[in-house]
Structure formats: structure tokens, C-alpha cells
């Protein structure tokens, strides 16, 4: 069941409903994502993206996410055509933190975590100095049960967070501490796409990342980033960070207790702090996660769906699922801090 949307005056004429395309919202999300449906189920998604660049810019600034539904997207090659059109300047997955397969030509599998686990809301690569402005997903095989990619408007997340919480993050920013090579996360070779530690040193210097070499296989990095940004194109305040995502409180309490007792907080694979090194209290992270929860929209994938998103306006996650599921992703149009 879908409900029609009002056509806004500032939108190009291609926004009008025709015998070929219909513009609407899902019941689950009355404000976003905006949905463009191919009524005939025969059109190329890449061609639609190419023909509607101006409209896409309008929709992204207003809604943050566009769901293309019913288009002729059957496989990875069809997705690559869409991705290359939507994101002319595709990016490498640098400082990667989750397991995924590089499918070539800028396409990757979505995070390959066990299906019974959920993935919390986050904006892709918010912790690096040069993050992707645009990101796109496509569902080639929907899960048998669940398997949604929930999304949240981080303008709303920002509004929902208490002023006192925002003030401290605005003053200090947030710090990410990562440990590579401890057997619990990606190796530095995988994360930095190189086997040469000298290349890692060079990258870290350019990216304002503090590098500590512990051994041949183990390194530790620290980086401080703003928690609140002004959107590059709209100037709106956005909650753009991984401070809650990688906070120790996100771990199962028993696992957290065991890891901290064995390795200490500083040796956790991921840890987040205020930018001045102070600990972020668990209740602050709980409050931030509640803001994400209130702002989140969840809808089930359909085969061939393509989700076009502004990575600075919209975060994403993953619900647990059963059965086969194949969702692919590309990102790019880098923006530098």
C-alpha cells in the first residue's frame, strides 16, 4: 500500500505522474524516502537517474533518500550502471571497519555480519577526513524474513538530542580509537588496502590520524572529528559521527566485561570518547540511540529496489534476517573535512 505525495512547485516537470512513473511515499515513512515507481517495470534505472539529475538533487536536499522501485535492475551490472550514473566519482573503501567483498568497479557487498545480528544506525565513513557524500544500495535478493536497511534522517536525530549533550560534543568533538591485528577486527592491511606500513604512515599523516605501531601486525589509531556538521549543500546541522555506534556500551554486556577485563578499554577493537579523551557515559549513548530510534524508518526490500541517498543527511543500519539476502552498495563524491 502506497500513498501519493504532493508535487512541489519547485520540482522539475519530470516529477509529474505519468503513465510510466509514479512519485509517492511509503506508509512507513510519510516524509522519506520519496519513492519513484516504474509502473511498467521495464525502464532502466540508470537512464532514469541520468535523465533526472536536477530532480534528484532537489529530492536529496529535501528528503535525503530516494527509493527507485519497479525498475529493470536484475544483477550487479545493472546496479553498477545506476551507481556510476548517480556517483560519477566512486570512492575506495578506506579505513574499512566491517567485512565486505569488493565486487569490482566501485561495487561492494553490504556488511557481511552474521544474519542474526542487527547493525546500528551510522553514516558511512563519518570518521575519515574525506567521506562519501553519496551512497546507493540495491537489493538483488530480498531476505526470506526481515533484512531491511532502516534509515534515519540525521537532521531529525540532531533535533531530538538534548542541548546539553550536543553542547559537549560541539565543544570537544569525538575520538575514535581503533586496534588492528588483535584478531577481533580487520587487519590494518585490509582496512588500508596495502601491505606496506609506510603507506599507512603516509595516509595517517595526511588524514590527521595518530598512528601507534605496536608490532609488525598490530597498530593502534586515534582520530578526533567533529560530531556535528553543517551540511555542505544545505547548511543544516546534522548529527554525523560514529560516537554511539562504536561505544563500548554497544557490545553485549558479558562480552564487554570479558574483553575489558582481558585487554583493557584502550585495547578494544573500537572505542569512542569525547575528543578531549573523557569517557562518554553509557546513558549519553543510550539517549543518542533513542534519538536514532525515533528518527528511523524501516521498510522491507523488494527485488530490484535501488536506494539513492545523501550520506550526510541519512544514516543506515541493518535488521537481522533469515534466508538468502544480497544487497550491494557503492559510495563516492568525496567531501573533505
From TrEMBL:
GO terms for molecular function: 2-oxoglutarate-dependent dioxygenase activity. It holds the Pfam family TauD. Its cofactor is Fe(2+). One of its GO terms (biological process) is antibiotic biosynthetic process. Residues 50-328 form the TauD/TfdA-like domain. SUPFAM superfamilies: Clavaminate synthase-like (SSF51197). It comes from the Bacteria. Keywords: Antibiotic biosynthesis, Oxidoreductase. The keyword Oxidoreductase applies. This is SyrP-like protein.
Amino acid at each position: 500500500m502506497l500513498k501519493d505525495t504532493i508535487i512541489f512547485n519547485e520540482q522539475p516537470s519530470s516529477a509529474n505522474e505519468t503513465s510510466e512513473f509514479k512519485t509517492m511515499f511509503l506508509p512507513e515513512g510519510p516524509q522519506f524516502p520519496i519513492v519513484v515507481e516504474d509502473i511498467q517495470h521495464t525502464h532502466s534505472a540508470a537512464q532514469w537517474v541520468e535523465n533526472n539529475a536536477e530532480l534528484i538533487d532537489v529530492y536529496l536536499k529535501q528528503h535525503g533518500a530516494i527509493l527507485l522501485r519497479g525498475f529493470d535492475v536484475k544483477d550487479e551490472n545493472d546496479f553498477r550502471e545506476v551507481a556510476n550514473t548517480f556517483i560519477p566519482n566512486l570512492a575506495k573503501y578506506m579505513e574499512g571497519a566491517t567485512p565486505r567483498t569488493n565486487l569490482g568497479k566501485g561495487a561492494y557487498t553490504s556488511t557481511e555480519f552474521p544474519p542474526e545480528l542487527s547493525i546500528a544506525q551510522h553514516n558511512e565513513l563519518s570518521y575519515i577526513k574525506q567521506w562519501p557524500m553519496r551512497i546507493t544500495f540495491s537489493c538483488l535478493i530480498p531476505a526470506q524474513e526481515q533484512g531491511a536497511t532502516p534509515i534515519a534522517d540525521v537532521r531529525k536525530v540532531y533535533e531530538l538530542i538534548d542541548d546539553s549533550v550536543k553542547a559537549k560534543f560541539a565543544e570537544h568533538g569525538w575520538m575514535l580509537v581503533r586496534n588492528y591485528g588483535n584478531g577481533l577486527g580487520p587487519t590494518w592491511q585490509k582496512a588500508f588496502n596495502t601491505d606496506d606500513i609506510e603507506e599507512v604512515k603516509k595516509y595517517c599523516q595526511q588524514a590527521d590520524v595518530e598512528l601507534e605501531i605496536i608490532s609488525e601486525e598490530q597498530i593502534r589509531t586515534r582520530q578526533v572529528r567533529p560530531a556535528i556538521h553543517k551540511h555542505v549543500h544545505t547548511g543544516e546541522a546534522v548529527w554525523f559521527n560514529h560516537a554511539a555506534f562504536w561505544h563500548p556500551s554497544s557490545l553485549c554486556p558479558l562480552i564487554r566485561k570479558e574483553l575489558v577485563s582481558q585487554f583493557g578499554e584502550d585495547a578494544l577493537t573500537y572505542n569512542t570518547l569525547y575528543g578531549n579523551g573523557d569517557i562518554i557515559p553509557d546513558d549519553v549513548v543510550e539517549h543518542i540511540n533513542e534519538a536514532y530510534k525515533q528518527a528511523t524508518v524501516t521498510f522491507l526490500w523488494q527485488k530490484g529496489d535501488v536506494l539513492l541517498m545523501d550520506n550526510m543527511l541519512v544514516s543506515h543500519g541493518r535488521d537481522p534476517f533469515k534466508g538468502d539476502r544480497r544487497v550491494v552498495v557503492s559510495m563516492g563524491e568525496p567531501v573533505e573535512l
